[in-house]
Amino acid sequence: MSALAMILVKRGHVVSGSDQGKKPSVQSLRAQGVNIFLKQSAANIDAISNEATLPPLIVISTAIPENNPELLAAQQSNLKIWHRSDLLAALIEMQPSIAVAGSHGKTTTSTLLTTLLAVTNQDPTAVVGGVVPYYGTNGHAGAGRLLVAEADESDGSLVKFKADLGVITNLELDHTDHYADLDDLINTMKVFGNGCRRLLANHDCPVLREHVNASAWWSITTSEAVDFAALPVRLDGDQTIADIYEKNELIGRITLPMPGLHNLSNAMAAIAACRLEGLTFNQIEKGLTDLQTPGRRFDFRGSWKGRHVVDDYAHHPSEVRATLSMARLMISSGRSPLPSPPQRLVTVFQPHRYSRTAEFLSDFAVALKTSDVVLLAPVYSAGEQPIEGTNSERLAAEIRKLDTNLPIAVAESIDQLCILLETYSRKGDLVLAMGAGDVNNLWGRLMNQNNNRWLSTLAA
């Protein structure tokens, strides 16, 4: 929503909204002249309508409930109401667009693609679900030909997007609060793909190979029968070296300034999309050094008592597995983008949604047991009602079945996680906080904890 608001205000529209938070994205919107109310109230709709010369367009996200006072006021005033996907669909149809979809990696792929286009002087418009480091924001109103949009599948609304080029990173069951089963998700993604003029897809994903009719494919495991391939030559904890193929012909070797096979796949998708849009490989190669993953994707927050604290958005078993594998590579290779290579892996995980936790309980356990220590926060409900027998204690029990010697503890709150870290971690550890809830506040709580103790010491 904040990315859409930023683009609209940059294009000359008068924008208002409601948000209680003091997040950087909100502060940035205020600085651009966006009127932001601190609470949601029917009076806000009246105030906006009274000031406007034309009836305002009301844009909501799936997170807005039917009894929201602003939504009710807008309905009573017979104002036009759009879902955020309707607005994004309108922007996509206004110019040649690349829409990036998939179960995992779409924010990172969108970010890498936006960055490559930016550093090669394409100045794209971008609507991304995370902060693009090159711009320092998740939305950019560019003057170039292309628009890059992250196409979120969580509520099925991506079927509205008619992009010039669609990109699908992978596909597996998620968002079980919306999709009945994998077939339901596949059918939705096929509608999205069929609505795009061209479709670029990941050949390494068996679901995509079976169900999607793509006009171009990429891979990081083979150069045969695909249009684009990045075959790894060396995997380190701070970079990846790979040979790039087009139509099974070697065209060059790249050094990607980020570790992990999942990041190599995301980068290959971005490179392939740039090639399909007419950029030369030499242009792209020069921009690779500027690539960075988006905010909350292995995001180093700082060091705390000799531990390196990293924030990551992983909240699906496949994402958890990929992130932990990358962290392990940093430990085994002795190379890392952190201030020093970590010695152990302390995973702080917050399950996100009761429905997802119940569906993938055993898969989460298998992924998390590769840690040296596991600390679990309570389930972040994201508005869902609890499911009996689905909680972090149950997840801890599942992990213990797989490894009885693995240190595991369950916290009652984020604050208690800080206390548990004192006991379970030590200098040289990588403290990896994973989840899509408020576990990203861990770093701030650790800093406040230090400050509060320091103040208490002074007072004594």
Give the tags.
460 residues; alpha/beta; Rossmann fold; UDP-N-acetylmuramoyl-L-alanine:D-glutamate ligase; Protein-Tyrosine Phosphatase, Chain A; ten-stranded mixed beta sheet; six-stranded mixed beta sheet; 16 helices; 38% helix
Can you give me a brief rundown of this structure?
This protein has 460 residues and is an alpha/beta fold. Helix content is 38%, strand content 22%.
Model description:
- The protein has 16 helices and 20 strands.
- The strands form four sheets. The protein has a ten-stranded mixed β-sheet with strand order 7-6-8-5-9-10-11-12-13-14, sandwiched between helices.
- Strand 15 and strand 16 form a beta hairpin.
Instruction: Describe the largest sheet.
Output: 10 strands, mixed
Radius of gyration: 23 Å
Structurally, the number of domains stands at 3
The N- and C-terminal alpha carbons lie at a distance of 47 Å
* Average residue pLDDT: 94
Q: DSSP helix count?
A: 16
The level-1 CATH class of the largest domain: Alpha Beta
Beta strand %: 15-25%
Proper CATH architecture of the largest domain: 3-Layer(aba) Sandwich
Annotated CATH homologous superfamily of the largest domain: Mur-like, catalytic domain
Fill in the CATH topology of the largest domain. Answer: UDP-N-acetylmuramoyl-L-alanine:D-glutamate ligase
How much helix, percentage-wise, in residues? Answer: 25-40%
Overall geometric form: globular
Give start-end ranges of low-pLDDT stretches: 454-460
Could you give the count of β-strands? 20
Strand order of the largest sheet: 7-6-8-5-9-10-11-12-13-14
Summing up helix and strand content along with how strands pair, one would put the structural category as: alpha/beta
